[in-house]
Amino acid sequence: MMSADRKPWTLEKDRTALLIIDMQNAFTEPGGSLEVPMAREVIPNIKRLAERCRMFGMPVIHTVSAHYVDDVLVSPLELAYQPHLDGRLIRPGSHGDEICSELSPEASDFVVRKYRFDAFYGTNLETLLRTLRYPAAIDTLIITGTVTNICCESTARSAFMRDFKVAFLADATGGLDDQSQQATLNILGRCFARIMTVDEVLTELES
């Protein structure tokens, strides 16, 4: 992993956006259809960071996952690889589809619907990022949310390939288990992202 002392770049408030990935009831509620207990545990950290980012005037962008368009399953391979998810996938407009109440979007926030793990694939996320501060440009993403080694990691890699700098938050992402959480942090930290904590991000933004 990249040394904590090595900073290939630093966070700049006017060029950075906060991305909160898939913090929906299906993932965060006890007994949710796709429950990830670790996602629930990091809600306070994400909430604290989002509140500070709004105070700084930084864009806060939520993604919401779904697996159906009307009654059509649009992620059949996901179900093929994980048949135990049959009957548990997210339908738009359902309770499980809603962002958890603790992180409900503010009026100034943005919400991006996605149908794949990668939040850039088939969405307006990149267009939004390229134009939000036009003619200036957002070139840095702070990634939080769930699932760490699936949607968060896929999005971080995709952001890197598009030349976005990525701050991937160790204490504001929730994985399926400690092993997969740490594996993602180790892999991304070698090449794709700076692995940071909420406190480290806020200290850098405030400096």
Describe the structure.
With about 210 residues, this protein is α/β, with parallel strands linked by helices. Helices cover about 35% and strands about 20% of the residues. It is built from 8 helices and 8 strands, in the order E-H-H-H-E-E-E-H-E-H-E-H-E-H-E-H. A 6-stranded parallel beta sheet has the order 5-2-1-6-7-8, with helices on both faces. A two-stranded antiparallel ribbon has the order 3-4. Helix 6 runs parallel beside helix 7. The model has no long low-confidence stretch (mean pLDDT about 95).
Query: SS-based structural class?
Result: alpha/beta
The overall pLDDT, averaged over residues, is 96
What is the count of β-strands? Answer: 8
Number of helices: 8
Q: Strands across the major sheet, in which order?
A: 5-2-1-6-7-8
How much strand?
A: 15-25%
The main sheet comes to: 6 strands, parallel
Q: What's the quaternary structure here?
A: single chain
Question: Keywords, please?
Answer:
alpha/beta; 20% strand; 207 residues; six-stranded parallel β-sheet
Topology:
Layout: E1 16-21, H1 25-28, H2 37-41, H3 43-55, E2 60-65, E3 68-69, E4 72-73, H4 76-81, E5 110-114, H5 125-131, E6 140-146, H6 148-161, E7 165-174, H7 178-191, E8 194-196, H8 198-206
Parallel strand pairs: 1-2, 1-6, 2-5, 6-7, 7-8
Antiparallel strand pairs: 3-4
